[in-house]
Amino acid sequence: MLWELAPKIQSRLEVRQNASDATGREYLDLLCIGPSTRTAIEFKYFTTQWTGTAGPVPEEYALKSHGANDLARLGFVSDIARLERFARPDQNGLALLITNEAKLWTEPKQGSQPTRDRDFRIHQDRTLTGRLLWGGGDYPRNTRNLRGSYPTDWQLYSLQDGPRGEFRYLAVFTDPQPTPELHTR
User: Which superkingdom, per the lineage (predicted)?
Assistant: First the structure.
């Protein structure tokens, strides 16, 4: 579809990144290369159980529940942090999550018990920024540091028949890395 909509944009899947702080091989899901800028894209697709028919040519679906909402949040926030790390002066980023799991876009009820992923909540109108601690910091491996500030604004993606047939997406954009200033005497 990208080639049809923007034929001058080159696209590459699973592009290896060579970040200086990489702990191993790291890959982007999609890299789009235009005449003057690039966009790095990370995708997440997280589902809860839904069965139905959808599409212009009707197709049967039987989606399973992934179940671990906390890990979906961690994975999405990790994608944002990765896009920041991979940033270049000519490259912005896009973290995209599509889901029919309403618990991801719905704010927790007042008075509910604190959860280990409370810093990673991505419900509507939340802002992700700064140091995010997993379990209040008791699992440092899952700590994420975000340089930017990212408001969450969920949008309707698709509305299907039946329970859990509402699909929404969350798109978070990261800015290019500023060009280092040259100091002269």
Answer: Bacteria
Q: 3-state secondary structure string, the chain?
A: CHHHHCCCCEEEEEEEECCCCCCCCEEEEEEEECCCCEEEEEEEEECCCEEEEECCCCEEEEECCCCCHHHHHHHHHHHHHHHHHCCECCEEEEEEEEECCHHHHCCCCCCCCCCCCHHHCCCCCCEEEEEECHHHHCCHHHCEEEEEEEECCCEEEEECCCCCCEEEEEEEEECCCCCCCCCCC
The Cα 12–Cα 3 span in angstroms is 11
Predicted structure pTM score: 0.89
Tens of pLDDT along 160-184? 999 999 999 999 999 998 765 554 4
Rounded-to-integer distance, Cα 156 and Cα 106, Å: 13
Nearest to 94 by CA among 148, 136, 137: 148
% of the chain residues with pLDDT over 70: 94
Predicted pLDDT at 25: 81
**Would you say 122 and 106 are in contact if contact means Cβ atoms under 8 Å apart?**
no
* Separation between Cα atoms, residue 132 and residue 29, nearest integer Å: 24
